[in-house]
Write a structure and sequence with these properties.
heterodimer; A: globular; B: 12 helices
Chain lengths: 312, 346
C-alpha cells in the first residue's frame, strides 16, 4: 500500500456556509487519501455533505479549514493561476442530473468542446470537432449526435454526453456525483459499465458519490461512509460489507434492497440514532482499527468495536 | 385462486393522439387484483406501467383514451366511464394514488394540514374541527412528529421523505380500498426509501388496503410484493408470485432486468445490459416486442407474437421459450444463481 501514489489527499477538511449566527458547518474534520487508479466512494444520505466534498476538490466550493492536496500540491484556497488552470483541466466532474447539467440552448458539439475552447486545445474548429466526435464515440454515442440539442436525447444518452464532456479534457481524476441516481435500472448498468471501461482504458481515478451502497459495492475499491459532514467509517469495499462496525454503516447496509424475496422479507431494518453516542467527556477520534479500516469513535466505543472484530 | 378479484382489467388497449398520429402505449393488458395483496408492476421507463394504472382512476391525459377492453370494479365496467362526475366517486375515495415526486405532487401555496383536510372533507363529508382532528391523527399515523405544528407548515418546510409521508397521508386519509404507488421512493435516499416502504406496509395492514407498486427497481419489489407483473412495450410479459419471478423467471426480459442489478453483479466484470431501445409505439409491432433486443430470440419471435404459457397456476409468461418445441436455453449466470437458491430449499 505504501508504494501507491496518492493522487488526492484531504486533511482536516472543514467547509462552512454562511457567517456569524447563520454559520453552518457542512463538512468537518474530514481526512482521506485517494490513490491513483482506484475508485473511492463517499456514501451518505442527502444533506450529509458528500457532494460538498466533491465540489471542494474541483474548486467549486471554497473551503474554510484544512488542506486538499493534488499530487502533493495544495489546491484549495488561494493558489497560482497556472495551478488553478491545471486543476480545472485535470479534475473533471460528472453531475447527478443529466436533465439539469447540460445547456439546453447549446448543441452537443459546443457542450462537449467548451472546455477545449477555454483552454485553447485544438487549433482549428475542425480539429476540435474531430476530438468531439472521438469523445462521443468513446462513450458509445454516434458522432452525428454532435449537431443535436440535449432535449433530443434520453436520460442515459444525456449522461453519456456529460461523461464525454468530462473526458475530452483528458482528466486524471473524475468526480462522479451520483451519476446514475436519476437513471432507470437497465440504463444504470450501461453507465456503470462505461465508467468501469473508461477507468481501465484511461487509467482514471474516480471519486464516486452515492447514497446507494449496492451500486457502490459493485464499482468501488474503497468506501467512506459520511454522516452529517463527518466520515464515520472508511474501509475497503468488501471489508466494509463483511465487517461493518459503525452503527450508521450498519443502518445504511440494512436499507439496501436485496433482489431476493426470501432474504428481504426476513430482513430487519436498523435505524441509526446519533444520540446513542455519548461524546460529552470521552472525545471521539479517527482511529485505524484494522489496517486500512478507519472508524470514528471514542475510547469506549473503540474497545467495543475491537471486541466485535475478535468475535468475527 | 378461488378468490374473486376486486379489480379485473381485461384486454385493455389505450391509445394517445399526438399531432395527428396515434400512439399505442398499452396493447391488450389484462390484470386481476385480489383483495389484500401487494402487486408490483415492473418495467423500464416508457413500458406503459404508469399509463396502465392511471386508466384505473380515469387519469389519462386528455389526448388518451381506452379504446378496447374492460375494467371491472365492484361489478361496474369503469373503462366505460366518460364523465368526471362518475370518476370522482371512485378516484381518491376507493382507489387512491401516490405519485413519484413529492416535490411536485403537493401544492406549494397551501399549508400541509389544509391539503390533507381537503381530501377528508371532500370524500368523507366531515367538516371543520372534526376534520382537523382526523387530519392530525393522520399526520401522526404516517410518522410525522409534532403534528400540531406541522399542520400549519408549507410543503417547502418539509424534507423529501417527510413530504412523501404527507402525500401518503392524503391518499390514505379516505381509507381507499386500493392504493396505487407510482414509484413512491425513486426520488428518495436509500434509508428514507426503506422507511417509506415500511410505512406503506404498516398502513396497508391497518386499513386493509390492496396495494399496487409501480417501480423499475427489482430490489424494492423483493421487499414488498406478493405478486409481480413485468411489463414491456405495453404488455405484461410475465406475471407470477414474487418467488416465482425471482427464482424461476422465464421471460428473457425479466432475466435482463434482474441481471442488470448491481447487487447481483460480479466485481470487475461488466454488468449484463439491455442493448437497444424499446420499440417505437407509433408502429404496429410484429412478433415479440422484445425480440430485437433479446439475445435469446428465436426466428419465430420476429414473426409471431407468443401467447401466454402457464408455468404454474399462478405464473405465466409470454415467451416462445416455454413452447414444448423450443430448444433448451442456458439462462444468464445471475439468474442461475438465484434459481439454485430455490433448489437448495427444495
Amino acid at each position: 500500500m505504501a508504494e501507491r501514489e496518492k493522487l488526492i489527499e484531504v486533511k482536516d477538511l472543514q467547509i462552512t456556509f454562511g457567517e456569524g449566527r447563520k454559520k453552518f458547518v457542512a463538512v468537518d474534520d474530514v481526512n482521506f487519501d485517494i490513490y491513483r487508479g482506484e475508485t473511492f466512494s463517499i456514501v451518505g444520505e442527502s444533506g450529509s455533505g458528500k457532494t460538498t466534498i466533491g465540489r471542494a476538490i474541483v474548486r467549486i466550493n471554497p473551503t474554510t479549514n484544512g488542506e486538499i492536496l493534488y499530487k502533493g500540491r495544495k489546491i484549495n484556497g488561494k493558489i497560482s493561476k497556472e495551478l488553478d488552470r491545471e486543476v480545472i483541466k485535470s479534475c473533471q466532474m460528472i453531475f447527478q442530473d443529466p436533465m439539469a447539467s447540460l445547456n439546453e440552448r447549446a448543441k452537443v458539439e459546443y457542450i462537449v468542446s467548451e472546455g477545449l475552447i477555454n483552454f485553447g486545445i485544438g487549433k482549428t474548429p475542425q480539429e476540435r470537432s474531430e476530438m468531439v466526435q472521438k469523445a462521443l464515440r468513446e462513450v458509445g454515442l454516434l458522432p452525428e449526435f454532435a449537431s443535436r440539442f440535449p432535449h433530443e436525447f434520453s436520460g442515459g444518452q444525456r449522461q453519456r454526453i456529460g461523461i464525454a464532456r468530462a473526458l475530452i479534457m483528458q482528466p486524471e481524476f473524475v468526480v462522479a456525483d451520483e451519476p446514475i441516481s436519476a437513471l432507470d435500472v437497465s440504463i444504470r448498468a450501461q453507465v456503470l459499465n462505461l465508467l468501469n471501461q473508461l477507468k481501465k482504458s484511461r487509467g482514471l481515478t474516480y471519486l464516486f458519490i452515492a447514497h446507494d451502497l449496492s451500486v457502490v459495492r459493485f464499482i468501488s475499491d474503497r468506501i467512506a461512509v459520511i454522516h452529517k459532514g463527518r466520515i464515520v467509517e472508511l474501509a475497503e469495499a468488501e471489508e466494509l460489507f463483511l465487517h461493518p462496525l459503525h452503527p450508521y454503516t450498519k443502518a445504511l447496509l440494512s436499507a439496501v434492497p436485496i433482489p431476493d424475496p426470501e432474504v428481504e422479507k426476513k430482513k430487519k431494518l436498523l435505524v441509526y440514532d446519533p444520540s446513542m453516542h455519548d461524546y460529552s467527556t470521552d472525545k471521539p477520534v479517527w482511529h485505524e482499527i484494522l489496517p486500512g479500516h478507519f472508524i470514528y469513535g471514542n475510547q469506549k466505543e473503540l474497545a467495543k468495536y475491537k471486541k466485535e472484530i475478535q468475535k468475527g | 385462486m378461488a378468490k374473486e378479484p376486486i379489480l379485473s382489467a381485461k384486454d385493455i388497449e389505450i391509445c394517445f393522439h399526438l399531432r395527428g398520429r396515434t400512439l399505442k402505449p398499452i396493447r391488450k393488458c389484462s390484470l386481476d387484483l385480489y383483495e389484500g395483496e401487494t402487486l408490483a408492476i415492473v418495467g423500464e421507463s416508457g413500458s406503459g406501467k404508469s399509463v396502465f394504472t392511471k386508466s384505473f382512476i380515469g387519469m389519462l391525459d386528455a389526448n388518451g383514451e381506452i379504446i378496447n377492453g374492460s375494467i371491472l370494479y365492484e361489478g361496474i365496467d369503469i373503462a366505460k366511464y366518460k364523465k368526471e362526475a362518475e370518476w370522482v366517486k371512485i378516484r381518491g375515495k376507493k382507489i387512491a394514488m401516490v405519485f413519484q415526486d413529492p416535490m411536485t405532487s403537493l401544492n406549494p401555496l397551501k399549508k400541509v394540514g389544509a391539503q390533507i383536510q381537503e381530501s377528508i372533507e371532500l370524500h368523507q363529508g366531515i367538516k371543520g374541527e372534526e376534520a382537523k382532528k382526523l387530519t392530525l391523527e393522520m399526520l401522526k399515523k404516517v410518522g410525522i412528529p409534532d403534528p400540531e405544528r406541522r399542520y400549519n407548515q408549507y410543503p417547502h418546510e418539509f424534507s423529501g421523505g417527510m413530504r412523501q409521508r404527507v402525500v401518503i397521508a392524503i391518499a390514505v386519509a379516505c381509507h381507499p380500498q386500493i392504493l396505487i404507488c407510482d414509484e413512491p421512493t425513486t426520488a428518495l435516499d436509500v434509508t428514507i426509501q426503506a422507511q417509506i416502504l415500511q410505512l406503506i406496509r404498516d398502513l396497508q395492514k391497518e386499513f386493509h388496503m390492496t396495494v399496487i407498486y409501480i417501480t423499475h427497481d427489482l430490489g424494492v419489489v423483493a421487499n414488498v410484493a406478493d405478486r409481480v407483473a413485468v411489463m414491456y412495450a405495453g404488455e405484461i410479459v410475465e406475471i407470477g408470485k414474487v418467488e416465482e419471478i425471482f427464482y424461476d423467471a422465464w421471460h428473457p426480459y425479466t432475466w435482463a432486468l434482474l441481471s442488470a442489478l448491481p447487487q447481483l453483479g460480479v466485481k470487475g466484470e461488466d454488468l449484463p445490459t439491455i442493448d437497444g431501445t424499446p420499440p417505437n409505439l407509433y408502429n404496429e409491432i410484429v412478433g415479440d416486442a422484445f425480440a430485437p433486443r433479446n439475445k435469446y430470440a428465436m426466428k419465430v419471435d420476429f414473426v409471431k407474437a407468443p401467447p401466454y404459457f402457464d408455468v404454474t397456476a399462478t405464473h405465466k409468461a409470454k415467451t416462445w421459450l416455454l413452447d414444448p418445441r423450443a430448444p433448451k436455453m442456458e439462462r444468464p449466470k445471475a439468474i442461475q444463481a438465484l434459481r439454485s437458491k430455490m433448489k437448495a430449499k427444495g
